[in-house]
Give the backbone structure.
Amino acid sequence: MDMDLLEKSIAFALRAHEGQVRKKSGIPYILHPMEAATIASTLTDDREVLAAVMLHDTVEDTDTTLDEIRREFGERVAQLVKGETENEYPELTREESWKLRKEESLQRLRVNNDASVKIMWISDKLSNARSLFRIYEERGDEMWKLFHQKDKSVQEWYYRSVADALKELSDTPAYREYVVLINLIFGGQHEVTAV
C-alpha cells in the first residue's frame, strides 16, 4: 500500500527527530513540526507544502540531507525545505552567527514570491511564537537568557521583520495571531511596514 505523501513525511519526521526535545520546554520536538503542519493545513491543502512543513527542520536539526528529502519526497518538497534551512557557519558559534543567519533567511524570504514558501514561514514562526509566549508567561524577560540571541531588542527586530516580510498573508488568522503574540511578547503594536 502506498503511503500518502503527508503520512510519509510524518513518519520520516518522527524518525528524524526521535529523542529530540524542545530546548526551552523539554517537550518532544516532533510536536513543533506537527503544530506547524496543522497551521499550514488551515492555509493550503497542497500535500507537498504540508509535507515540507513537516520536514522543515530535518536538514537543519538532524543528520538528514537535502538529497534524502529529494529522493524520498521529490524536488519541490526538497526546494521548500531548503528555503526554510538556515546556512551554517562552522567557524562561528550559534550565538555569533545568529543575526547573520536570520538576515540571510529574511532576505531569501523577501525576494521569494512563492506563496507556498510564505505559508511554510508563517506556520513555522507562529508555532515558535506560541512556544515563546508560553515561556514568556512563565519567565518574562528572563527567558531571553535561554536563547542563542539573548538581546531582546534583536529578537524583536527578527520577529517583527518576519511579520513585515509576510504582510501579504495579513488577511489570514495565522498571520493575525502571530502579530498578536509578538505584540504581547515585545510590547507595543506591530505595524506592517513596506519591505
Notes: The chain has one domain: 5-186.
